[in-house]
Amino acid sequence: MDERSPKPLIVAIAGLLSAIMSFFTPHEGLSASLFGVGLITAGFSAIYWLADPDQPLD
Question: What distances in angstroms separate CA 4 from CA 16, 18, 27, 29, 36, one per listed residue?
Fold first, then answer.
């Protein structure tokens, strides 16, 4: 079995960092947007990585 690409995990980490940075943003609307987008990005990236779409179908 080949190794999985780490790119989706890197995107997931960036999403989590965005969610963390939302707590340090003084503007309420921007803070909520960063938090939501960060969590959605991290969640979808982690699911994409776990699904392993590069795996051949037998």
Answer: 20, 24, 38, 36, 27
pTM, two decimals, is 0.78
Q: What is the DSSP string of the chain?
A: -PPPPSHHHHHHHHHHHHHHHGGG-S-HHHHHHHHHHHHHHHHHHHHHHHH-TTSPP-
Q: Is residue 5 pLDDT above 70, yes or no?
A: yes
Inter-helix orientation angle 28-51/7-21, to 10°: 160
